[in-house]
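hey m, so remember when u said the C-alpha cells were messed up on ur end? i reran from scratch. heres the input so u can diff it against urs
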Amino acid sequence: MSDTTYYTYRGDIRALTAAEGLLAFVTVHDEGQATAFYRINVDKRQMMFSTLPCGGEALIVTGDMHVYIAGSDRRVYHRAWAADDDFAALGDAFNAPIAGLAELADDRLAVVSGDTLAIVKRKGGKVLQRLALPEPATAVASDPSGKWIAVGCARGTLAVFDGEDKKEFAASEHRQVHQGAILSLLFEQEELRVLSGGTDAKIFLTHVRGALDPELRSGRSGHDEAVTCMVHGPGDRTYSGGRDKVIKIWARGQGRSSTLKGLDVVRGLTMFEHKARPHLAIACEDQSIRVYTVDAGGKIGERVHVIHGAAAWARNERARKEPKAREKAIRKIAAWNDAVAIDSLGWFAQNDGDHALKVLATELLGASGNPRAKGPLGDLLRASEEKVRLTALSGLRGIEGERSLGPLRLALGVRRRDVGVVAIQALAGLAKDDDIALDRLIEALGDDPSEVRIAALLALEALHAESSPQAELLGLRSSQADIRRMALVRFFQRGFLDRPEVLAVLRRHAADADAGVRKVAFNVSLLTKPKLAAALRYRDRQLHRALHEIESASAPSFELKIGASDAEADKARTKLLSALEARARGENEGKAAKLPKAKKVAASTVSEEDKRPLLEAMASRALDTCLAGASGLALLGDPRALGTLLQLSRERDGNVRVAVCKSLQALGDPRGAARLRLLIRDGEASVRDAAFSALTKLESSEPLAIAEAGLLAEHEDVRRRGLDLLVKQLRDDRKNGEADDPAAIALLERALGDAGRSVRSEAFKAVLNLEIDGGGAASLRFALRSLHADIRREVLGEVIGQIEQGWAWELLLELFSDPDAGVRSEAFEFAMKRTKGIGEEPLQAALSGPYPDLRLAATDILSKRKAPGVQELLAKAARDDDEKVRSLAIDALLVNDADDALVAAMASPHADVVVRAAAARATHGDPRALPALLGVLREEEPEIPALQAKWHNRIIAALKGLAELADPGARSTILPFLEHKDSSLRAAAIEALAGVARPDDAESLAALQAALQHADAAVRQGAALGLALCGDLSGASILFSGNNLGDDALLAALALSDRARDVFMSFLDHKRDRTRDKAMLLMLLQELAEGDGVPDRSLAALSAANPRVRLAAAQALENFADHDAFFAFVVRQVNDRGEGKAAWTIAPEVVALIAEAITFGDELSNPQFRARAARLLDALDPKEDKQEAFDRQWRIFTERFAATLTTIDARAKQRPQVASVYAPEELRALVFGAYAGLSRLSGGANEARIRQTAIARLVA
C-alpha cells in the first residue's frame, strides 16, 4: 500500500539525488523566490532544509560528502553534508546560467555555463581551466574516475574532455549525436562509455576514448518524448525517464525495454536505500517524488510512497477539521506570497466552513500586496458573508491605492448593499476634487440595490450646499424609479416646494414613465397648496394617508467626512443602512404615529388658484395623473370633472374604470347615472361592483329600478347584487308595514329562473325566508316556477325534509311531473322508499305521469312483484303510449303468467303489444292467439324506413309465435314470407312453416319439400329440419352434411329415431361442450326409457372421443343391471351442473316423464313431440344460478300437453321391465377395462378429475 506525505518545499524540482538513505533535491521557484536545499527521511517522514539565497538548478553530493549546488543566480554554493550552517558561495558568479555540475578527480568540479566548461577548485572556488564548447551546454557528466568529462550541448553535440594522464583536461572529440538538445548524460560504471538522452526521445551509447561512434541504445522501444534523466540500478539495469510520463527499464546489452506508466513528466531519478532495500525515487513535474521498490534483478515493484510539495500540502490542509490547524496553515501559506499562496488563500476565503477563517484569509490576501491577489479579492466581493466582502474591498483598495477608482467600480458592480455603500462613502470623499469620481457617484443613482443608490443621492446632497436642490435634480435623472420618488419627497422635506425649478419638475414628472413617480409628483404638488390638500384629505382617507406618509417620511442623513478613519466610516455606514432598512420596513417616524384625523374644510373655501394642481393634473397626458386630477375635482364637487371622468370610463385599464365609478359617486352628478348603467355590464368584476355601488347611491330613490337593471345584466355577480337589493327592499317594505310590491315579486320569480346558479339559489333562500305566498307548500310551489332543475331539486329537498307535514306528500307526488328526469326520479325513489317499496299510490301516480321514464321505472318495480293488484297496474302499463313501457309490462305479465291480462292485451291498439301477448299465449298452445298472430302477418309493410324496423321485428315475433302454436291453419299466411327480400324474415318463415307442419299433413310436407329447392340456404336448412321433425328423410343430406352440426341437427336425429341413430350417436363426439353434453343426456334418457335390457347405446358411447362421455358411459354400464340404480344415476346426470356447483333439483318422476317423451313421443308416436320435449333441456344452463327457467318451461309444457303426458305416463308404467341381458359381473368386467383406460389420461385439471374418478372406481 502506498503512503502519502505532504511537505512545504516550493518550486519545481530541478535535481534529485540521495545520500545516507536520505533523498536530497533542489527546486527553482517560478516567481524567482529563494528556495532551499531539501533532505527527506522517508522512514521518519521528516524533511530538513537549508535556505538558499536563490533557487537550485543542479546538485551533486561528492564522495567526501560535500554538497555543491548550482544556483539560479549563476553562482555555485557548497556546504558539508552533515553541517548545519548556511551554504556559502564558491567563487564568483558565472557569466551565464549554470547548466550542470560534475565531480572530478583531484578535488575539482566541472561547471558548464553557457558555451564554457569551467574546471573549478573545490576549495576556494578558483577557476583552474576554461574550455570552450561548440554549443551552449545543457548537461554534463564525469566518469567514475573523475578524469573524463562528457558535455551535452543545445543542438545535440556530445563533447568529450580527457584528463586521464594529464594535470589539466583537454578537448578530446565532439560530434553531433542527437537531433536536438542533450538533456541527460550517464557514464557506465564499468566501461568508458556514456549514455545520452535528448529532446529527440532517443538514447545513444558512445565510447568516449578515441573517435566518437554513437550506438542507438533505445531502438524501437524508446520514449515517445524527450528523455530528461537516467540512473543506474541493480542487476545491470538502467532507468530512463522522460516527458512522456513513463520510466523505461533497460537491461545491459539489450535494445528492448519494459515500461512503468502512470506518472507525471519525469524530471529526476535516483536510487537509495530504504528499509535495507534498494528503491527508485522519481521526481515529477507536478512537484511530487514517487518511491518504488526495486528487487535485486532491477525489476521495479509497487509504489510505496508519494511525497508532495507545498501546493499539494496547501490543498490537503483544506480538509483539516480543526479550525486552529487550518488557521495555522493559512498563516503559513500567506507567508509564501506566491501564486500558490494567493490561490490557496482565495480558496479558503471562498469555501472554508469557518466564517472567521474566511475573513482571515481575505485579510491576508489584502495584506499580501501581491498584484495576483486582485483577482481573488475581486471575486470575494460577491461572497455571501458581509464581513468577507468588506474585508475584500479594503484589501483591494490597499493594493491599488485609496484614490484608485477600480476597486470602487468593482464594489458597485457586485450589487451588494454593504460594499456598495462603502464604495459610495469612498466616492463621496474623492468626488470633491475628482470629476471622474463625481461622475461615478452620479452614475450610482441608477445602481442596484436600492440602498446604494439612496446613499448616492444622500452623498450628493452632502456634496452640495444645503440650500441647493441640485442633488435632487440629479436624482430625477436616475433610471431607477425609487430614486426619482425619493428626490420628489426630498423636495418637500428640504423645503424647496417654493422654487420655480422645483414646481416645473413636479409638473414634468407628473407624466413620468413610472406610475409610482407620477403619484408622488401629484401628491407633492398638492402639498404646494395647503388648503387644497386639507380639503382633499378630509374627503379621501387614502389620499390623507399618502400625504401623511410624505410628511412623516424619515430622512436618513449621510455623514460625509473626508479622510475619516475606518471606524468612523464603518459607523456611518451602519447608521445609514439601519435607517434604510427601517424605511423599507415602514418603521419610520410617520408610521410610528397614528394617522391624525383630517380637519373638515369646506369645498367652497378652495379657490381657483388652489385648484391649479388638480387642473394641471387633469390636463396631463399620463392616464393616472389625469384621473387623479379629475378625481380630486370630483371630491370637491366641481362639475368640470364630469366630462373627463366620462372619457376616462372608456379606458382599457379596469382599475381606472373602478376609480371613475367611485369618482362619479363622489361627484354626485345625476348625469353620470347613464354611464354607470352601462358600466355594470363591464367585462371586469371590480368595475361592475363599483358601478353598481355608485348607481345605488345616485338613484337611491328608485331601488326596484336599480334591482331590475342589475337582474338584467349579463354578469352573474351584478345580478346577485341586484337580487340582494331586491330582497333588502322587500324586507324594508315589510318593516314599514307595506304589502309586497307585485313588481318586486315578479322580479323575485325572474331571479328564480336566473342563468346563474348562485343567483337563483339565493333567490330560493329568499323565497323561503320571506315566506312568499304565505310560506309552507305555497312558497315551495312558488319556487317550482323556476326554470332550472337545481332549484326544483332544492324544493324536493325541502319537501323530503318536511315530509311529516300534511301538505308534503301531495307536493311530493306532484313532483313526479317535474320536467327534469333527475328531480322526478329522486321524488319517485323517495316515495317508494317512504312506502317501503310496496306503495301502490306512488306507482299509480308514476304510471299516470306525463313522462315515460318514470312510467318505465314504475313498471320495472311492478314486474318484480306478485302482490294483489299488480296485474291490473301492469295491464294499464301495457296500454302505455311508450313502447318501452309496454314491452316491459308485457314481459312482466309473461313472467307472472297473467293469462287473462295477456288475452286482453291481444286486443290492444298497439301492434307490438298484440304480437308479444299472442306469442306468449301461443307458447301455451292457446288457440285464441292464432287470429292475433295472423293479423300481424297481414300488416302491410310500411314504406317509411323508420317504421320498417319495427314492422320487421313484429313479423319475426309473429312467425316465431306461430312456430310455437303449431296450428296448420297458419300455413297459407306463412308461405308468402318465404319469398321476402329480407333473409331474417325468410328464416323465421321457414321455422314457422316447420312448426305448423304435421306428419299426416300432406300439404305442409309438400310445401317443406318444395322449400328444399329454395335459393336461400337457410330456407333449405329449415325445410330439411321441418321434414326431419315430421319423420321425413327427404332433406337429410342437407341437414346432416357439414363438419360442425348444430343443435337443430341433433333434434332432427332424435326425431328420426333409429333411422338416424348413427348420426345421433356421432354427437357424442361434438366439438362444442354444450351440444355434446346434451347428446349424452338424451342418450342416457333413451337408454332409461327403452328398458329393453340391452345397454347398446352406453356400449357405443364407451368409444366416444371425449373422456367425460366415456366415463359417463362406463358409470352407466356399471349401474345398468340394477334398474333402480341406473334410474338414480340418470337422475344425477340430469341434475349435474358441473364441478363445484350445486345440483339442479329436478324430481325423478319429471326425469322419467321427459325420458318417455323424447324416446317414444306422444300417444301417436309423433317425432315432433320428442323434439319439443328434448328442447326442455336447453333451460338447464350451467351458467344460471337458479332453476326458474326450467321450472317455468316445464310448467307450461305440462299445462299445454297435460292429457298427452297423462297418457304416456300410463303407457310407461304399463310397459314391463326387461331384465338386463348382461349379468352384473359381466358389466363390471367390461367397465373395468374402460376405467383402466381412463386412468391413463394425461392433461389438465378436467382430465385429472376424470382419471381420479376412474381410479376410485377401479379400487372400489
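this time it looks ok to me. Residues 1080-1260 form one domain. if urs says something different then somethings off w ur setup not the seq
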